[in-house]
Write a structure and sequence with these properties.
It is built from eight helices and twelve strands. The protein is α/β, with parallel strands linked by helices. It has a six-stranded parallel sheet with strand order 9-8-7-10-11-12, covered by helices on one side. A three-stranded parallel sheet has the order 1-5-6, with no helix packed on it. Strand 8 (148-153), helix 5 (156-164) and strand 9 form a beta-alpha-beta unit. The radius of gyration is 21 Å and the shape is elongated.
Amino acid sequence: MALLANQLVQRGFCVDTLCLCNGQNDSVEINKAQALLLPYPFSVEDGKIRTVSGDGVPLQTILEQLTPGTIIYHHGHTRGAGEERFRWRLYDSDPELVLQNAVISAEGAVNALMQSTEDAVVNLHCLVTGYGIFARALTRMLLGIGAKVTVTARREEALRLAQLDGARTLSLSEIEESNKNWDVVMNTVPAKILNPDVVSALKPGCILMELASKPGGFDVKPAEHDGKKFIALPGIPGKYAPLAAAKALCDSVIRTLEE
């Protein structure tokens, strides 16, 4: 978000920041704001805006100082009573931002995979669960490197699309009967679809990569991974390529402000 503020300043916008650095509690004239950009991807938790210090700023304290009609960019905040006086804009309602984040996330996931194995990606057989925008970008990137990729999903349309992209496919309903000979399992589905029996049947040394938001797809506790390597990667764009993530957000904000 600090990089996003810099990007907006470079584009000619007047930007104030609040709690983007440890110890930063600037006297910001919140009532003059025409747009409020809440943190991405996790905007509000337990009624507080996430901050670097971890203390959080009560959202209600900010809203009380905003002028009605102010545009508020957010990610997944459920509006409460009285908050309809503002114009709320969901970051992920911009398809272009979703696509850019998917590509950044795919690159970050592949980078994490490379750092987690002593083998070359071209030698790996990867299972990707789900086939949304992120999973498709990830599959295409893995295939481009030369990895063998199997995609498992519920919808037939998703499986047909994965086949067209060059991946092997497996219905999610068939996963328990499959041979489970994958080197890597990369989950993009935010639902418990990989039960303990499936995880236990995976071959020794298999890398389990949790790429989905909570609750994730592995229905097992960390202690139950049976010697397999578990890697959780929440918020990939901001961690792997924060500048690219900031540029994507900046472009999206400007696009929607113009609208």
